[in-house]
Amino acid sequence: MKKLFFIFTLWLMAYSLHATPLLHNVFNRQAVSLNGKWHYIVDPYENGYYNYRRSAYDTWGPNLNPGVTAYFQNAKARDKSERCEYNFEKAETMTIPSSWSTQEEKLFWYEGVVWFQRNFKHVKKEAHRTYLYFGAVNYEAHVYVNGKKVGIHIGGFTPFNFDITDFLNENGENFVIVKVDNSRKAEAVPTLSTDWWNHGGITREVKLIDVPEVHIKDYRFKLDNKDLNQVLAEIKVNGVNKATAVEVAIPALKWKETINTNAEGFASFTFKNKKLKLWTPEEPHLYEVSLKVGQDQLRDKIGFRSITTRDGQILLNGSPYQLKGISVHEENPIGGRRNYSETDARQIFQWAKDLNANFLRLAHYPHNEYMPRLADELGFLLWEEIPVYWTIQWENPETLANAQQQLSEVIFRDKNRASVIIWSVANETPVSDERTKFLTNLTKTVRTLDDSRLISAAMEVSQHHSSGAKVIDDPFGEVVDIISFNQYHGWYGGDIDDFKDIKWQIKYNKPVIVSEWGGGALAGYHADAETIWSEEFQANLYKKTLEGIDNIPNLAGFTPWVLCDFRSPRRPLADIQDMWNRKGIIGEGGLKKQAFYILSNYYKAKTDNPSQ
Ligand code: GCB
């Protein structure tokens, strides 16, 4: 109990010490973009942060000014005799957002610290707060405005913001410096080894947002699982200390109400409407919702749907629903860079549409916000995940706090997205008491923050020693809503011709998703189906897997591994892999492999004849 309390306190501390609690729906707020050219200095020894005794300059306090030595000061030699050993103005530039590995050839393999700097003009507005927002920085960001530290954020795939009002200069001339560190660490989330590229940098958009002192901080609208005519809603207003009126409207429903918050700016309410058009992938109906408090006005487009389970099935709006899925990394096969833009997201959904899919597993970390936003609009269901991958330090309370924070941040960002139906808390983690306790703690975080979605994790399969049956009996299965597992029969062992004869023993009567299956092929390499790495080999693996996959009990769908080839340092085989994981059904350069068409035909047949 004591330990739990300690962990909870750590988590709260992580929250309050690091980024200012997030503003919800930054996406739809008027913002000044700080994307574009930033100067950068590569700093493998952290020379700009520590002195020669390894004492961090930004912990020295006002009386021990590091002078021109600390990079976050953005110093320049003031006269011809002054020694200053860096100069951002003269340093090279890089376009933000980006991953430095794919922006700068010389940084392809680099893992460590890079400092980024840019100037910006911003005139303070009377009775307003200014927030500095980052869509994501991989992995650890120390942010300084005009030479002063505004905060730290840890975790490479979730948004954060700082209230920088009090750091801004009266003359409107400002600079921001970010120390970005993507060194892999054993205690981090993810930990030392993964099967994807450790893309360092300011990898998502940077924005400045002015909001009136009294502003909408957060809100949530969700359909009541128990009454599909009823919406449950909550609002949080910042900057008030008395009951405050918020105007809320959904014009298409001709619904408008003034809601009064309590003295802390919080209100919860419900409304009913028999004519509510529910959101589905086939008809992704979104309602415009508007919120207004004082001078602050914010809009969103929200879909209403329920997602539940019953008797081993997934129910969307109360009816059984089959998922036709594919796993996706946040990487572009054309160039192997990180995806970050609306255009990138539209490309992924176009491919998913060509595949006749209705479900994407966003592996293995939260993807950028364009993905859930467009999924809402275009009609795709999403599985979102945090990078609790393989072997995390299960007994380290800081690691747990870190994972909880990343989970909380993605839930916070996407809680109003109808497309998001599953929170996955882990991938292929080895069964032990400590690990199950860790993951169970994560599910508690989810249930506290969001009781309107399903929980899962990609688990592993074992083989029964005598019968040879494939067994899924992970004790974590007790805790989740959906049993998901990765299996690679025909690739990491097993003869694909035997796939249809496998006996599946799943301990839990819950819906099942096969969260990964597949094999590698080099796009354009043709041979017979026995020849590994050929498109024919991969196509045959897909064909045989699809012939036998319906033998899996309670199968609600699957997400083969993976839509596109992606970069990975674990894949050095020359002339075939060349540092790419080749399990994509779309190859490097965007070329569809044969397996793509096998899966798309299979999904088309399922769509045309769901009972097939
Ligand atoms: C897995 C992992 C995934 C890897 C994949 C592979 O089981 O979950 O991250 O990329 O296998 O290609 O081996």
From TrEMBL:
SUPFAM superfamilies to which the protein is assigned, alphabetical: (Trans)glycosidases (SSF51445), beta-Galactosidase/glucuronidase domain (SSF49303), Galactose-binding domain-like (SSF49785)
The keyword Mitochondrion appears for this protein: no
Gene Ontology biological-process annotations: carbohydrate metabolic process; glucuronoside catabolic process
Pfam families: Glyco_hydro_2, Glyco_hydro_2_C, Glyco_hydro_2_N
Residue ranges constituting the Glycosyl hydrolases family 2 sugar binding domain according to the UniProt record: 94-212
Signal peptide: 1-19
Example of a GO MF term: beta-glucuronidase activity
UniProt keyword Ligase present: no
Every Glycoside hydrolase family 2 catalytic domain range: 309-544
EC assignment: 3.2.1.31
InterPro entries: Beta-gal/glucu_dom_sf, Galactose-bd-like_sf, GH, Glyco_hydro_2, Glyco_hydro_2_AS, Glyco_hydro_2_cat, Glyco_hydro_2_N, Ig-like_fold
Keyword annotations: Glycosidase, Hydrolase, Signal
Domain Glycoside hydrolase family 2 immunoglobulin-like beta-sandwich: 214-305
UniProt family annotation: Belongs to the glycosyl hydrolase 2 family.
Protein name, entry field: Beta-glucuronidase
Organism expressing this protein natively: Persicobacter diffluens
